[in-house]
């Protein structure tokens, strides 16, 4: 019975927490290439937090529908993910002084977010893509002390 309870707890935990390896330099200096981060799935992000978001297929968007909130780890692993910082969420003012692709609104629309890499010269983010749908956010990166 203990093994069965452990298995159930492990399954629940892997649906809530995911370990992700950072690829690339778009979040330097905060995160380096090959850093390991722990992601809390489906936690509502706040501005300033770092999230893992599903990468679109270039500027065309996504080929597949969003993952269900409780998708199993193999389904999560089959998608391509990016790590970005949340700058604005639905209802927030669109940041001025930034050139965001395909954005003419004064406020971030419902269900959307402005996401940026910390290293603008090496980041594919809202400057090139525009808004990212919140349903494409896997979760919030757990940082030490939080």
Characteristic key phrases:
146 residues, alpha+beta, Umud Fragment, subunit A, 3 helices, 7 strands, 16% helix, 25% strand, globular
Describe the structure.
The chain has 146 residues and is of the alpha+beta class. The chain has a single domain (2-142), classed as Umud Fragment, subunit A (Ribbon), CATH 2.10.109.10. 16% of the residues lie in helices and 25% in strands. It is globular and about 40 Å long. Mean pLDDT is 85; it is low at 1-13.
Secondary structure: elements and pairs:
Elements: H1 2-16, E1 17-21, E2 36-41, E3 50-54, H2 73-77, E4 81-88, E5 112-116, H3 126-129, E6 132-133, E7 137-142
Antiparallel strand pairs: 1-2, 2-7, 3-4, 3-7, 4-5, 5-6
Q: Please tell me how large the radius of gyration is.
A: 16 Å
CATH topology value: Umud Fragment, subunit A
Q: Beta-sheet strand percentage?
A: 25-35%
SSE-based structural type = alpha+beta
Largest sheet: 7 strands, antiparallel
Number of helices: 3
Spatially, the strands of the biggest sheet line up as 1-2-7-3-4-5-6
| Element-level helix/strand string | HEEEHEEHEE
CATH class: Mainly Beta
Q: Give the CA-CA distance, first to last residue.
A: 34 Å
Query: What would CATH call the homologous superfamily?
Result: Umud Fragment, subunit A
- What is the residue-mean pLDDT, rounded to a whole number? 85
Count of extended strands: 7
Named at the architecture level, the CATH assignment is Ribbon
């Amino acid at each position: 019975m203990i093994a069965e309870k452990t298995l159930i707890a492990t399954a629940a935990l892997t649906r809530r927490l995911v370990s992700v390896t950072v690829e690339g330099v778009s979040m330097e200096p905060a995160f380096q290439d090959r850093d390991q981060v722990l992601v809390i799935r489906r936690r509502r992000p706040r501005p300033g937090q770092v999230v893992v978001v599903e990468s679109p297929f270039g500027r065309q968007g996504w080929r597949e529908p969003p993952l269900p909130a409780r998708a199993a780890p193999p389904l999560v692993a089959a998608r391509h993910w990016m790590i970005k910082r949340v700058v604005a969420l639905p209802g927030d003012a669109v940041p001025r002084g930034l050139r965001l692709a395909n954005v003419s609104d004064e406020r971030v629309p419902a269900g959307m977010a402005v996401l940026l890499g910390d290293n603008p010269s090496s980041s594919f983010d809202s400057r090139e893509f525009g808004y990212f749908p919140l349903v494409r956010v896997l979760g919030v990166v757990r940082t030490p002390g939080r």
